[in-house]
Amino acid sequence: MLRTAALLCACVLSSIARADDASTDERNIILGAGVQRMPGWIGSKDHRNQPVPYIDAELPWHITLSTLDGLTVDVIHSGPWRGGFYGNYLWGRERSDLGPRLGGIVDSLSPRLNAGGYLEYQATKAFSVGGNLAHDTQGAGAYLNLYADCDLPAIGYFNHSVQLQWQAMNGPAMRRFFGVTPEQATQLGITPWSPGAGSQQISFEYDAYMPTSEHTGVAVAINYARLLGDSADSTLVRRFGSANQLTTTLAFVYRF
111 — phi, psi (to 5°)? Predict the structure, then answer.
């Protein structure tokens, strides 16, 4: 997590440094810190609290960086179309996250960065659809996300939006998160599971921002995901976890 935070902050600071001679009107930068309550591992029914940096920055030269949505650098920026480089990270799981029953049997996983490309169509100022395709920078996992974003009408100073997203994984990524080897299955008393490529989850997210002063505010994100296909059918999830996944984020932020 510290390595990821350092990388995200370095990206923001380097982008700000490059943008020093640009008009401040071209920037919209929100930085802060908060807590994310998330499943102990993807598919877990138990939750953990994780301190997280909060970043939501729109920078010159069509660069955006977000704790929730990752990094994008536009190469296509014509009319309603946007597209270019995409990068993000995936949480892993530590032995303590797996708990006493699974820890030491099920593999612990370190967080991973992935990189690829994205394409987005902005139908209106408030509504857009798009997708991104990414691959682990260290590993064999590949991920496809299709999404629709909608900004809701502001209520006074209260701004909010919703997002619907579908995600698929290739075989190595599915087996990394949801696979159960014969040796692990024997120790856990369950059936081995070797999932293939396909749908992994569909999720709905609600994001909100409420200013508390000219430069400060509170950001909230609520994400509900439902595991699909081989991820939901994993014996690891069915026996020890849940196909229903809820993640909430609360952060206090400063807006430049």
Answer: -60, 155
- Cα–Cα nearest to 147, from 162, 159, 136, 131: 131
Which amino acid is present at 166? W
* Count of other CB atoms within 10 angstroms of residue 36: 21
What is the biggest distance separating any 2 CA atoms in the chain, rounded to whole angstroms?
Answer: 62
Q: Which DSSP string do the residues of 185-212 spell out, in sequence order?
A: HHHHTS--B---SEEEEEEEEEEEEEES
Burial class of 122 by CB neighbour count within 10 A (0 to 12, 13 to 18, 19+): middle
Q: What is the pLDDT of residues 147-178, one digit of tens each?
A: 999 999 999 999 999 999 999 999 999 999 99
The residue to which tokens 């749908």 are assigned? 199
**What is the C-alpha separation between 172 and 55, in angstroms, rounded?**
30
CA 129 to chain centre: 17
